[in-house]
Amino acid sequence: MSEAQELDQLRQQIDALDQQIQLLINERAKCAQQVAEVKYKYAEPGSLVTFYRPEREAQVLLNVMARNEGPLPNESIARVFREIMSQCLALEEPLTIAYLGPHGTFTQQAAVKHFGHAVTCAGQVSIADVFREVESGSAQYGVVPVENSTEGVVTHTLDSFYDSNLYICGEVTLRIHHHMLVKSLTDNVQRIYSHAQSLGQCRLWLDQNFPNVERIAVSSNAEAARRASSEVGAAAIAGEAAAELYELEVRNANIEDRPDNTTRFLIIGKQETIPSGDDKTSIMVSSRNQPGALYNVLAPFHEAGVSLTRIETRPDHSGTWNYLFFIDFEGHKNDQRISPLMQRLRDVAVDFKWLGSYPKAVL
């Protein structure tokens, strides 16, 4: 048998498999439509029907990776199913997702990574605007950055939870690669635009390569790219999406100081999330301004054997030198060992607010 004959046989096999896959995807889509019909059928008159279930999607993706036998790696096969689920959900309920914009930001990439491409992404000027869009019902969910492995916490996101009634419904992590973008590779760089967080994530590289060039913080990396595309002598630090959107050249690639540079984003919405089996909980605690205040907040976690994943401190709006603790820990508020822990915290805290229990990031 010749090479051409062997390749022809394999291509025929691929075509047959593609046909089977297409039929099965459409069968799955029909099931999704039937799910919507059943939910409407049993919904209380005037009640809000919920279609997007973060815990269910997390379970599906975990199951996909658990039964994967290759040769595709777990994350790759999970991304394929992520898109299938996104398209099927759109048949039940088209979603609008508010994110920190404009178009081409890392937050938009995080939104697409979490929800897939079958959603409408609505860019917002600020984190506060993302919260407002979801609170008003203009968007069902929002995506906001909360912390970066190099630069730490995004304080505006934490502060927005103080007066908000929204819940954290999920999280997504995104590896962040920054590039130096210019209109032309021959340009003499006189100023560099980027978001303050991105400038901080590339600080050492900039100190070594452009120590005397002005660095200007703007509202987003996409805005930095827009300015670089229209100003002589301007450069931007941004990602590939912004480079493509504004037709910029990559002068230097992957200039972040840490190769493992990662940003964590939160999914915010109006619904509470039931346990998925692998969850986190986020709370906001205000302690009394007295010796041992932090110990009193942390001791219940030690006694319950619950692992903290993050703790941050922010000024309390109630008075000078009073502080709020933002704490993330493993488990769901409905778990057997978490429920009494939450009650202990309510007893020792001046103020206590549960921000959400949600599935850990899968992808």
Automatic annotation (TrEMBL):
Sorted UniProt keywords: Amino-acid biosynthesis, Aromatic amino acid biosynthesis, Coiled coil, Cytoplasm, Isomerase, Lyase, Multifunctional enzyme, Phenylalanine biosynthesis
Documented EC number(s): 4.2.1.51, 5.4.99.5
Catalysed conversion reaction: prephenate + H(+) = 3-phenylpyruvate + CO2 + H2O; chorismate = prephenate
Site (described: Essential for prephenate dehydratase activity): 263
Keyword Coiled coil: yes
Span of domain ACT: 282-359
SMART domains: CM_2
Ranges for domain Chorismate mutase: 1-96
Main location: cytoplasm
Molecular function in Gene Ontology: chorismate mutase activity; prephenate dehydratase activity
NCBIfam families per the UniProt record, alphabetical: CM_P2, PRK11898.1
The protein's name in its UniProt record: Bifunctional chorismate mutase/prephenate dehydratase
UniProt organism field: Thalassolituus oleivorans MIL-1
